[in-house]
């Protein structure tokens, strides 16, 4: 069993008594979660509820005055093409990054699970960007992509190409944002998969080999099924991170050109602080929260359809 | 051992509680001055120098000059929203329209008699109150490199309408110079283009229409059509998206760029790269009337109405307002002083000042968005112009976005 | 060890791997030595590409940090004759980077300790008492993992200001704890559910109280998941920007990410100094990680003996 067990929501198990708590788990045990809940209630839940209240007002974000305008902000969400662009981008950032991170992360984990010289150094280097603040990472890549002095264009010119304005075209810019985010956090997926791989007892592989299974069959019949919990954890964590994406976009493109690379998060910040439509921004915040919750639950349910129990 | 964790945490929290109380309770008075200057801005150094002279005379007062992040406006809004208001803060052009409800009126200050009358339209309300000490007066036009225009045989004073300006752009393009430059990276730059054009780019009925809450889509579209024309002709700098103010300053100094539509601080940036660069500005062309300059409040600092140290803060502002101090600050900015008893060294811009500002025949118009558009639309202006310059959207789409933003913000006011 | 099984109605759970499957495909000949060598070379090459890609931004930043603003040579080129350290002194003198590293270290250390302690405490009843209330609490906590920081910023900051918690270590620490707790509770609870009940039941039969069971029996078994929580929490807190930038306002209280943010101020952005500051901010985390690396991946695996 790995510590990175997958995101499984507690739910009734069919055919078992639903509250079959062990005898020693008395009611008073619940006191243990009171301190944590108190912190969460004050610093997360209360502001969140306040934000929901704000979403029904036309507050500009700094003046004392505000008035209730009912569902108007939510109506605007449905009609606002800029929000739709941001929503679409948010999906691209979320799913695009998650996909790349799983493929590359698993490949790296498999490669670095083998006994070889320099394995730990390689793992550390792959994981290194995770340790860096996304603001810093975005800055580093901004230097690299810039038109005149950027290393990427120097390389393109050296190879006989033309200088390119990488961040002027919305499609290129979106692709680069996905790439930067994926590369930065691929280390997380790699480590989760490494942990998962190391928790698979060697005897299964030995048994499979004795049965004459080749490398591919071992991978399909032993590795993949036994990595289920790791898959679930990695996918869900990456998905939440990708759908919340903010810092990297702010630093690399600021949501531009035009509005074309905004995610919902960056659009919230724009609506809050730049457009002085804090009420509308709060409505977007509520929508984003619901969106992330729905997708995470959906992904989680799909991934937990088939879980293995190994005894 | 895991079981020692809670104990450890408790000890750590206690240690923090004992050592790390909130900053700055040391008996004396601390006045927080929230600047809008970056940590490495040379103007901040000059301000710190002047401030040091003040604290030498007032040892019981500490002045905390806070550098800004690049999200200064957002930071200020959050602070105002939550009641965490600095004693003094930089009003960056908005002392009247955005901040006056939070600021102390300053028209009865001893230095108020020297308030530069050119600033009155932008900074005074109907009662004649103003709310910030103006370090300089903002006067802006289209910035250019004299050597580049001379080489191309262009006289900037002759560019009185957009057709002539377009011809000049073509001449520069043929000469292998980037005709006009802006920045998509620094997210305020592009908005200046329609904002400068707009100040003198509408008929009187259209201006009245804006004030009545009707977005003048056709008039605005004609401004953006001009920008779209430049984009289609390839007149903008190819590094537009990644270029920063620094990059543009360098290009201007090195004679790689003809025109930039931005305030004169770009000149200071350019001189940092080449102190001998010959730079100037000229009035903005107009098809609706005569050429004009735009301007109003430059760098200015106001005092919070609710400050606990209001008297000390006002006293510090009065010190900044002393002629030699204000002259020093205005010279550092390279701007026309905000008070009439100060002088400043305009340096390389003296020639443009003498030609266009001093005679007083070129109208100095307020910024279009500050008078005719609702508070909060600026970012939409920047983004929509950005989408035209990068060719990511067509003019009707951009105008639609402006209309939507205009209507919803008007509904909010 | 096991993970909990949740089976939606109608789903058939595969029970482990059955090695006596008659429909197994016939064994194929194993790949020869040459094939394996080619495979190794391909894997090595792929790894090399990945490593170069991951080091690239750091390299670019190093070359940028070591050059004055007037140096226009390519980012690929290290300054040849003389390294320019002025950017680093600028970062230290003007950006308060060393102070910011100290602030971040303190906030990160205390927040991480609190997250581990509160998280482990909170997870135990949630893992071991399956009442309707506890299920709802757990669902709520998992839901909080998904709260985007931006959606709570303004209400949170307003409240912090009323509590006089802005610009204080304790205020920032509590907010950081709140943002990181949900994931920590979740990880602890999942892990605890995977622990065999029999040990705790035996202790209960021996007359231990629930508190004694928790502290003497359960906590010592949590080392692996604690390593995971420590790494995830400390990295997240160290790098937090969106909220810290508002909670720590004065230059001498700033944590590291907002301190670097000041270098991108709207006037006079100084990329060399920003690059230098960025590098300095990475060094402490990197050092800690290198020390912990030996335990890190081991720590994410519970009792797997390879």
Automatic annotation (TrEMBL), chain A:
GO cellular component terms attached to this protein's record: plasma membrane
SUPFAM superfamilies for this protein: MalF N-terminal region-like, MetI-like
Any Gene Ontology biological process: transmembrane transport
UniProt-listed InterPro entries: ABC_transporter_permease, MetI-like, MetI-like_sf
Location of this chain's protein in the cell: Cell membrane
Topological relation to the membrane, as annotated: Multi-pass membrane protein
Name of the featured protein: Glycerol-3-phosphate ABC transporter permease
Organism: Agromyces badenianii
TrEMBL record, chain B:
Superkingdom of origin: Bacteria
PROSITE patterns: PROKAR_LIPOPROTEIN (PS51257)
Keyword terms, alphabetized: Cell membrane, Lipoprotein, Membrane, Palmitate, Signal
Keyword Signal: yes
InterPro entries assigned: Bact_solute-bd_prot1, SBP
PANTHER family in the cross-refs: ARABINOSE-BINDING PROTEIN-RELATED (PTHR43649), POLYGALACTURONAN_RHAMNOGALACTURONAN-BINDING PROTEIN YTCQ (PTHR43649:SF33)
Signal peptide span: 1-23
Record-given protein name: ABC transporter substrate-binding protein
């Amino acid at each position: 069993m790995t510590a990175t067990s997958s995101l499984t929501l507690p739910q009734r198990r069919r055919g078992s008594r639903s509250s079959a708590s062990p005898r020693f788990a008395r009611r008073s045990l619940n006191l243990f979660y009171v301190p944590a809940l108190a912190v969460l209630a004050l610093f997360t839940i209360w502001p969140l509820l306040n934000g929901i209240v704000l979403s029904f007002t036309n507050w500009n974000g700094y003046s004392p005055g505000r008035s209730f305008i009912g569902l108007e902000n939510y109506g605007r969400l449905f009609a606002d093409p800029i929000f739709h662009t941001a929503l679409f981008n948010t999906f691209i950032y979320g799913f695009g990054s998650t996909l790349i991170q799983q493929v590359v992360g698993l490949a790296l984990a498999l490669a670095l699970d083998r006994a070889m010289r320099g394995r730990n150094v390689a793992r550390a280097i792959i994981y290194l960007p995770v340790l860096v603040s996304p603001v810093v990472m975005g800055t580093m890549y901004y230097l690299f992509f810039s038109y005149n002095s950027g290393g990427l264009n120097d390389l393109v010119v050296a190879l006989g190409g033309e200088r390119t304005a990488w961040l002027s075209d919305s499609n290129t810019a979106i692709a680069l944002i996905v790439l930067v985010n994926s590369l930065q956090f691929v280390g997380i997926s790699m480590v989760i998969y490494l942990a998962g791989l190391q928790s698979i007892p060697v005897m299964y592989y030995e048994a499979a080999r004795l049965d004459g299974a080749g490398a591919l069959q071992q991978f399909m019949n032993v590795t993949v099924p036994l990595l289920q919990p790791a898959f679930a954890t990695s996918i869900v964590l990456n998905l939440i991170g990708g759908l919340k994406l903010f810092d990297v976009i702010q630093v690399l493109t600021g949501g531009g050109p035009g509005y074309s690379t905004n995610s919902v998060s960056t659009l919230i910040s724009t609506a809050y602080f730049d457009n002085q439509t804090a009420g509308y921004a709060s409505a977007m915040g509520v929508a984003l929260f619901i969106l992330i919750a729905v997708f995470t639950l959906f992904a989680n349910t799909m991934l937990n359809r088939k879980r293995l129990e190994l005894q | 051992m895991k079981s020692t964790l809670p104990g450890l945490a408790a000890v750590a929290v206690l240690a923090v509680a004992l050592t790390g109380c909130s900053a700055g309770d040391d008996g004396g008075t601390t006045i927080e001055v929230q600047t809008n200057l970056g940590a490495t801005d040379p103007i901040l150094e000059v301000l710190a120098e002047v401030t040091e002279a003040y604290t030498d005379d007032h040892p019981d007062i500490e002045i905390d000059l806070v550098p800004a992040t690049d999200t200064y406006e957002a930071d200020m809004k959050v602070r105002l929203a939550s009641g965490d208001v600095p004693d003094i803060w930089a009003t960056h052009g908005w002392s009247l329209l955005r901040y006056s409800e939070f600021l102390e009126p300053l028209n009865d200050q001893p230095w108020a008699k020297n308030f530069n009358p050119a600033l009155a339209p932008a900074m005074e309300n109907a009662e004649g109150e103003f709310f910030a000490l103006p370090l300089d007066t903002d006067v802006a036009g289209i910035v250019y490199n004299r050597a580049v225009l001379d080489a191309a045989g262009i006289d900037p004073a002759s560019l009185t309408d957009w057709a002539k300006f377009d011809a000049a752009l073509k001449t520069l393009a043929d000469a292998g110079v980037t005709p006009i430059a802006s920045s998509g990276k620094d997210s305020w730059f592009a908005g200046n283009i329609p904002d400068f054009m707009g100040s003198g780019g509408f008929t009187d009925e259209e201006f009245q229409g804006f004030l009545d809450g009707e977005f003048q889509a056709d008039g605005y579209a004609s401004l953006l059509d001009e920008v779209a024309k430049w984009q289609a002709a390839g007149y903008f700098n190819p590094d537009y998206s990644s270029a920063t103010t620094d990059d543009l300053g360098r290009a201007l100094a090195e004679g790689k760029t003809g025109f930039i539509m931005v305030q004169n601080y770009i000149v200071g940036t350019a001189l940092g790269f080449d102190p001998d660069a010959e730079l100037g500005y000229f009035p903005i062309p107009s098809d609706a009337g005569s050429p004009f300059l735009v301007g109003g409040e430059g760098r200015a600092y106001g005092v919070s109405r609710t400050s606990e140290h209001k008297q000390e803060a006002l006293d510090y502002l009065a010190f900044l307002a002393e002629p030699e101090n204000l002259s020093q600050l205005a010279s550092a900015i390279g701007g026309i002083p905000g008070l009439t008893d100060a002088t400043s060294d305009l340096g390389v811009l003296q020639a443009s000042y003498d030609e266009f500002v001093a005679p007083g025949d070129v109208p100095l118009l307020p910024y279009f968005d500050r008078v005719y558009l609702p508070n909060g639309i600026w970012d939409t202006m920047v983004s929509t112009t950005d989408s035209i310059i990068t060719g990511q959207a067509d003019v009707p789409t951009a105008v639609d976005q402006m209309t939507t933003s205009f209507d919803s913000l008007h509904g909010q006011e | 060890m096991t993970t909990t099984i949740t089976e939606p109605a109608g789903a058939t759970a595969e029970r482990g791997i059955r090695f006596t499957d008659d429909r197994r495909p016939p064994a194929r000949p194993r790949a020869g030595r040459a094939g394996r060598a080619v495979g190794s070379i391909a894997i090595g090459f792929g790894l090399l590409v990945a490593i170069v890609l991951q080091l690239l931004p750091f390299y670019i930043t190093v070359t940028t940090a070591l050059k004055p603003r007037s140096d226009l040579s390519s980012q690929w080129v290290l300054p040849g004759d003389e390294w320019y350290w002025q950017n680093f002194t600028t970062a230290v003198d003007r950006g308060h980077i060393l102070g910011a590293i100290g602030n971040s270290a303190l906030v990160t250390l205390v927040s991480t300790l609190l997250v581990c302690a509160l998280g482990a405490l909170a997870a135990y009843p949630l893992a071991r008492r399956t009442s309707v209330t506890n299920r709802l609490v757990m669902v709520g906590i998992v839901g909080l993992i998904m709260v985007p920081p931006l959606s709570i910023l303004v209400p949170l900051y307003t409240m912090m200001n009323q509590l006089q918690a802005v610009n204080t270590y304790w205020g920032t620490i509590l907010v950081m704890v709140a943002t990181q707790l949900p994931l920590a509770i979740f990880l602890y609870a999942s892990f605890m559910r995977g622990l065999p009940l029999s040990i705790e039941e035996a202790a209960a039969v021996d007359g231990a109280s629930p508190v004694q069971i928790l502290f003497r029996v359960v906590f010592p078994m949590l080392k692996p998941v604690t390593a995971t929580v420590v790494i995830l929490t400390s990295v997240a807190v160290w790098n937090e920007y969106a909220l810290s930038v508002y909670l720590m306002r004065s230059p001498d209280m700033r944590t590291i990410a907002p301190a670097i943010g000041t270098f991108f101020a709207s006037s006079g952005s100084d990329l060399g100094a920003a690059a230098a500051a960025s590098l300095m901010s990475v060094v402490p985390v990197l050092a800690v990680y290198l020390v912990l690396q030996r335990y890190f991946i081991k720590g994410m695996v519970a009792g797997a003996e390879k």
